[in-house]
Design brief:
The protein is α+β, with helices and mostly antiparallel strands and 358 residues long. Helix content is 37%, strand content 28%. Strands 1, 2, 3, 4, 5, 6, 7, 8 and 16 form a 9-stranded mixed sheet that branches. A 7-stranded mixed sheet has the order 10-11-12-13-14-9-15, with helices on both faces.
Length: 358
């Protein structure tokens, strides 16, 4: 059942996301907020809703007719992992954005009330302003880190800024017979998804639907593009990147089995750094990784320093905490089994499962 648009408590209300003027107002708020991310944008959480069926919800608190607090959400439903209100769905960021005029506590109470109304036993805030300890929320501060650094002034300086061992890998990739394409066309999208779904199967992870990826690229317009590395005409590595406030974020990427031999992933990220600088970006945001994971160490090898992230989770009374962590020991067997699936079967089943991972 769709929650009624209107007030919940203490000046916090649900936004009518069917009203274009309301959506535009939220987009403007995120664009001007110093802590706004691509995942706070209605372009993101509405694209998620359209492509996966996971409802988009937005809470605001207003002071003097202006937005003082904004919390974007997706209501994620999974037959395996249950229901969760995530800020925001399929994202590594989100959470509550506030101004100096905001009163945060009523917003946290309002989202708890909304979760109970929607029979949703869990909430996760992925960054932003977090509830205080002892308020019924559990804070996580060491599980994930983000990696970002400034881009260099030109291509040679960018190469020189990479630590020696990783720079050697990039130099090897520059000697390979590889071509680079950047765009948003059907050719770009098809090449990306062919690589992406193979990469996810190899990692033991159900792949997201192409509809989700297309919806985000369409919603972001010039704020998203696809960079693909080809060998002998075939795509071997590809990444969808998002652009926000002078930063580029490579978000959905992957490579085939052959990509490692060709150093195609190394070439992909170096070319993206150079491409993003030419687009006017000054920051390369390598995104989130699980602390201590292979991706965590890969990003450190590029000279990026980890910045611990803080998340907050809430569980309704009487319910066990939700566990959809791919590194969880109870999911290890499922991951191994998924890695052995024939690619056509993994491609068919993956999106049906992944739409509930959130």
């Amino acid at each position: 059942m769709k929650p009624d648009v209107g007030h919940l408590r203490d000046g916090v209300r649900l936004v009518d996301l069917d009203a274009p003027e309301e959506v535009a107002r939220l987009e403007d708020f995120v664009a001007l907020h110093p802590l706004g991310t691509p995942f706070h944008r209605p372009a993101w959480f509405l694209a998620v809703a359209r492509s996966t069926g996971n409802r988009a919800i937005a809470l605001v608190q207003e002071r003097g007719g202006e937005i003082a607090a904004f919390l974007p959400l997706n209501l994620i439903h999974s037959p395996v992992f249950g229901r969760i209100l995530a800020s925001t769905g399929f994202a590594v960021g989100g959470g509550l954005l506030t101004t100096d005029e905001a009163d945060r506590e009523p917003v946290f109470r309002a989202v708890e009330e909304l979760a109970l109304r929607l029979s949703c036993p869990a909430i996760e805030l992925r960054g932003g302003d977090l509830p205080p300890t002892g308020s019924g929320w559990v804070l996580k501060t060491q599980s994930h880190c983000n990696f970002a650094r400034r881009l260099a002034g030109d291509d040679e300086a960018q190469l020189a800024a990479i630590p020696r061992k990783q720079r050697a890998e990039v130099r090897r990739s520059l000697g390979m017979d590889l071509t680079i394409e950047v765009g948003r066309s059907e050719r770009d999208r098809a090449a990306h998804y062919a690589v992406f779904r193979e990469s996810y199967r190899n990692l033991g992870t159900p792949v997201f639907s192409r509809a989700l990826l297309d919806a985000v690229v369409d919603a972001f317009g010039e704020g998203a593009d696809i960079l693909t590395v080809r060998h002998a005409g075939l795509p071997v590595a590809s990444v969808i990147s998002l652009y926000h406030d002078g930063a580029v974020m490579p978000y959905w990427g992957g490579g085939t089995w052959g990509a490692r031999r060709l150093r195609a992933n190394d070439r992909m990220y170096f070319e993206l750094m150079c491409h993003a600088r030419r687009r006017g970006c000054s920051v390369f945001d390598f995104g989130r990784s699980k602390t201590g994971s292979g991706a965590y160490h890969f990003k450190r090898n590029w000279g990026f320093e980890p910045e611990p992230l803080s998340y907050a989770g809430w569980t309704a009374p009487g319910h066990p905490p939700r566990d959809a962590d791919p590194t969880s020991s109870k999911l290890a067997l499922q991951i191994k089994l998924w890695q052995r699936l024939p690619l056509p079967i993994a491609n068919r089943l993956g999106p049906l499962i992944a739409r509930g991972l959130g």
